[in-house]
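User: Can you predict the 3D structure for this chain?
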Amino acid sequence: MHNAVIAGYSRSPFTISYKGDLKTVRPEDLLAQVINNLISEPKLNKNDIEDVIIGCAFPEGEQGFNIGKVVTFMCDLPRSVAGMTVNRWCGSSMQAIHNAAGSIAMGSGKVFVCAGVESMTRVPMLGFNPMPHPKLLEDNPNVYLSMGITAENVAKKYNIDRTEQQDFAIASHEKAFQAEKNGNFKDEITVIKSNKSDISKDGGIRPGTNQDILDGLKLAFDQNGTVTAGTSSPLTDGAAATLICEESYAKENNLEILARIKSTAVNGCNPEVMGLGPIGASQKALIRAGLKSSDLDIVELNEAFASQSLACVKDLELDRNSVNIDGGAIALGHPLGATGARITGKAAHLLKREGKKYALATQCIGLGQGIATILEAVE
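Assistant: Here is the predicted structure, written as structure tokens:
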């Protein structure tokens, strides 16, 4: 079996949908700029790229037409490079990485671009014409439950009150602010050129967020609940990309290896508590890697909501000091199809930066799923 490694990672700034700096940028343009930056490494022979695999949660409108292949015509890539779009909702671009790792293990390619994009400004949540199956909706309405209500369900199940959720959100913003201040995002962000300006900074980080500010927000989903916009990831526009290579190929071509993909997993759960998806998926991935949660040095856990993040940290017995050390999605944002590539690339980047051994990237997925990737440092 051939090992797969992450040999590159880049992302756009993440900005708030409808009012952020990326609202006028088409998703194809956004994605193309990030991929072009990723593949600009002179040591990379672009003719060796087998496939461009793009994750997108709502691949329609400007994100349709198989954006995975469309974007190859907008990038500095030869026509021999194939392209596809995968959809596992929020886990789409992490799934793209898993697909590439599987192909590499089979000997079906040595180099893949695995990326994700979502313009939640230009393609709305649930798409343009959502049509739930009427009989399924009647028999099992939980399948189509609002994500916010699932967050409320998790908060109730784990007795996580509003103050604890707000403490988590405050920490996310503070960590992201300090990371930005210290230049920790500089190496990973592709400056996006638009008709108006160059966009180089994330748009959702709120330094100075505190309990008093968050106490002033209205309840977002259940007027008898605890979840607000301040303890939820915002609607976001963004793209992220990783370069996935066969390990021997990366070494032979002197590409910088950020991390090796040690194991992967997906797992289903009840849709009404979809935020618990990372628990089962991460447990599977840890078993496959022969590791325990205590072995993890770095954890990138997507913060869809504070309540589900706290529940996952608790049940997985994660060290809070290792989780989202540069902030998470509550501060940075969650452009659905892009997040998996961001957190997996970020986990690899952090392993290298911090000189650590093992990392976990994991996220929940609507309809009741989780996805996880275990990474290890390469000596």
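The first strand starts at residue 4 and ends at 11. The chain has a mean pLDDT of 97.
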